Amino acid sequence: MSILADIPFSLLELAPMREDSTITDTLKDSLAYAQHAERLGVNRFWLAEHHNMPGIICSATSILIGYIAGGTERIRVGAGGIMLPNHAPLVVAEQFGTLASLYPGRIDLGLGRAPGSDPVTSLALNRDTQRAEHFPDEVSELQSLLGPREARQSGQAKAVRAIPGENTNVPIWLLGSSLFSAQLAAQRGLPYVFAGHFAPRFLSEAIALYRREFVPSAVLAKPYVMVGLPLVAAPTDAEAQFLSTTSKQRILALIRGQEMWLKPPIDSMDGLWSEQEKSYVDSFLSLSICGGPATIKHRLEVFVEQLGVDEVMFTNDLYSNEHRLRALDILMSIKA
């Protein structure tokens, strides 16, 4: 039996949009994608907060989580993540407390400390440019707001309460691409997600730090590591390489400060990028699981065995929604 049989597979969704599509159709496609994932036995379906990025339609993250959860029945739905410096902890607690009340036992709350946007947009979201420095304190505040009321009694005549939110105990995950969140997750005894789908550089160091410094907590007895990976699955290696040019064009647009619409795959990237740009894109996507069934199975088995991860979360940003669904079929078939 494959080592992958017992490893949960999950999805990270950015609601990727083609320039010739509409926001309405893009979000309908995301729901169809989540419904297909649920039928196949995918564990979680998370949405990632981004702002001011044409081609990425998930700025109103909590609303989309409700949309996806309302259109599915069993799959866990959550944020991967909410960028906490953009929001007051009370507002996040109320939103996710509401979601958890509507969809009991199915809502996850992943938290990040990056803005999920460019500096100008970040300032429009939050005038306090130092908010990220208070991330550990705001995580604690959010945990308190989502926990039992008795734990928050402090002798105050009127303590702030999240209604809904209080006592929902929505599972909190810390997300990161460096050592900061790994260390904080370890200190708090929280599950940790490494963003290998876009920032693979500190992967091994972050996981080792998290496991080494982990302190058991009321929510987690031992470390739990999930890693995000880009996925390009197709019937053959050659077709997967062809389809992967959509992601490569998108990352190229990102580093050039251009709009990030999904573009059709092309035969070759030659002539589209400089050597420096090619190197950057290749580094960005260096953990990509790209190929036919046998190739992606082998790459994932090696990855899981080397790092001992507990769960893998995939981005799957292909140009055609039909190809996205097919990629899920292929991915889930290799677990056997």
Automatic annotation (TrEMBL):
<dbReference type="InterPro" id="IPR050766">
    <property type="entry name" value="Bact_Lucif_Oxidored"/>
</dbReference>
<dbReference type="Pfam" id="PF00296">
    <property type="entry name" value="Bac_luciferase"/>
</dbReference>
<comment type="similarity">
    <text>To bacterial alkanal monooxygenase alpha and beta chains.</text>
</comment>
<dbReference type="InterPro" id="IPR011251">
    <property type="entry name" value="Luciferase-like_dom"/>
</dbReference>
<dbReference type="InterPro" id="IPR036661">
    <property type="entry name" value="Luciferase-like_sf"/>
</dbReference>
<protein>
    <recommendedName>
        <fullName>Luciferase-like monooxygenase</fullName>
    </recommendedName>
</protein>
<dbReference type="InterPro" id="IPR019949">
    <property type="entry name" value="CmoO-like"/>
</dbReference>
<feature type="domain" description="Luciferase-like">
    <location>
        <begin position="20"/>
        <end position="310"/>
    </location>
</feature>
<dbReference type="GO" id="GO:0005829">
    <property type="term" value="C:cytosol"/>
</dbReference>
<dbReference type="GO" id="GO:0016705">
    <property type="term" value="F:oxidoreductase activity, acting on paired donors, with incorporation or reduction of molecular oxygen"/>
</dbReference>
